[in-house]
Amino acid sequence: MMPKKPKGTRKGFTTGACSAAAARAATLGLLTGQVPAQIETLLPNGQRVTFAVHDSSVTDRSAHAVIIKDAGDDPDCTDKAHLTVDVRLLVGSVNQVLLKGGDGVGTITMRGLGLEVGGPAINPIPRLNIEANIREVASELLQTQGLEVTISVPGGQAMAKKTLNDRLGIINGISILGTTGIVHPYSTAAFRASVVQGVEVAANQGQKTVVLTTGGRTEKVTMHELPDLDSACFVQMGDFLGPALDSADKVGIEQIIIGGMVGKLTKIAQGEIITHARRNAVNTQLLADLAASVGAKASVCAEISNNEMARFAGERMEELGLGDAFYRALCARVVATLEARYPKRFSYQILMCDFDGNKLVNYE
Fold first, then answer.
1. To the nearest whole percent, how much of the chain has pLDDT over 90?
2. CATH number assigned to the domain with residue range 189-363, chosen from the 4 options 2.40.30, 3.40.1050, 3.30.70, 1.20.1300
3. 64 neighbors 175 (Cβ within 8 angstroms)
4. Alpha helices (H) in the chain, listed in sequence order
5. What is the C-alpha to C-alpha distance for residues 230 and 202, in angstroms, rounded to an integer?
6. Which of 34, 167, 291, 311, by CA, is between 20 and 30 Å from 93?
7. Residue 38: alpha-carbon gap to chain centroid
8. CATH number of the domain located at residue range(s) 12-183 in this protein
9. How far is it, in rounded angstroms, from Cα 106 to Cα 125?
10. C-alpha torsion sign, points 246, 45, 118, 154
11. Cα angle at 266 between 263 and 270, to 5 degrees?
12. For 80-107, how does the pLDDT look when each residue is reduced to its tens digit (9 = 90+)?
C-alpha cells in the first residue's frame, strides 16, 4: 500500500492545463462524434497527464467539454472551477485555431501584460499549450478547415474578486494561467508573478512611482493618503518585497512607497526581502536598540528584546509617549537597509499603520 502523502503536499493543475485538456477533449468529440470520458493531455512542462471529463456534448459542427480544476492542496480561489471549452468548425478558414474568451474569462483593458487590449486574459504559455493539444489531435482536419475555441469559466467573475485582476486591468473574469501546468501546494509562484506583473503594468502605464503594500489594510491606508496617484501604482506585494523591488529596478521606477505595519517593516529593516512569518523571527533586539536610540530606559528595552512580537514594542513605546519617534526610527532603518541593497536607485517613502488601519507615521 502506498503511504498517504502528508496534508498540504498534494499537487494540482493550473487553469491553463485544465483548459488545454477540455479543448483537446472537445476537439476529439468534434472529430469522432463522442467526447471521451477521460483525456490524456500534454502539459507545458512536457508531461502527459489524464483528466476526467465531467460534462460533454457534440453536434455536427461543434463540441463541448468541461474539466473541473483540482488545485491539489493549494488554497486557490479557482479550485473546483469548471474550465469549459466549446470548439466549432470555422467556415472558410484553413489551419487556423482561433482562441476566444467566453463568460468568466477576463478581458484585458491595459497594456503591459503582453496580451492584446480587448482580448481574453489567456496567458501566452497556456495559449501555446491549448493550441498544441488541439493540433496534436486535429492536424488532418486543420489541413482543410479551421477551429474556433471558446474558453469559459462559470462563476469566473466572482472568483476574480479574490484575485489582483482588477488592479491589473483585467475585468469580468479570471485569467487562464500556468507556466508548467502544475500547481505546487501552497505555491507562492502565482502571487509572486502577480506582484512582478503589477510593477510592470505600472511602468507600462508611464508611472514612475509604485506603492508596495503588505495587504488590504495597508493598501487602504496608502490609497487614502495618496489620492492623487493612479490606481496602477498600487501593488499588493504581500511578502515579496525583493521581487517587487528587483522588478521596479528593471523597469525604471524611481520612487518606492511602502505601506506596512510594524512587524513587516521590522522584517525589512533587518534585511529580509521575503517577509513571511515562517521564514525568520522578528529581530526584537533590533527594536530594542531603536527604542534605546529614542530615549527608552534600559528596562523597557529589555522588555522589548525579550518579547517575540514587534507589535509589543510599538505599543510599549506608545505608552511612554515615544511612539512617533520610535516608528520614525524604524522607518529610517528600513530606508537605510533598502539603500544598502539598491544604492542611489530609488527615493523612498514609508507609510506605517496600526492593526486597525490607522496611520501611524508618514516618513519621507
1. 73
2. 3.40.1050
3. no
4. 15-32, 124-138, 156-160, 189-204, 216-225, 241-251, 262-269, 284-293, 298-306, 310-319, 323-341
5. 9
6. 34
7. 31
8. 3.30.2110.10
9. 16
10. negative
11. 145
12. 999 999 999 998 899 999 999 999 999 9
100 Cβ contact list (under 8 Å, min separation 6): 120, 148, 149, 150, 151
Q: For the chain, which residues make up each domain, given as ranges?
A: 12-183, 189-363
Count helices and strands in the chain by DSSP H and E runs: 11, 18
Q: How far apart are CA 6 and CA 215, in angstroms?
A: 29
Task: Please write the tens of the pLDDT for every residue from 222-233.
Answer: 999 999 999 999
- Cβ contact 207:184 at 8 Å: no
- Which residue is listed with cell 488545485? 71
CA distance 11 to 360: 42
What nine digits make up the cell of 67?
Answer: 474539466
Measured between alpha carbons, how far is 301 from 294 in angstroms, rounded to an integer? 11
Whole-number Å distance between alpha carbons of 35 and 84:
13
**What is the rounded CA–CA span in Å between residue 63 and residue 57?**
6
Amino acid letter for position 7: K
| Single-letter amino acid, residue 203 | A
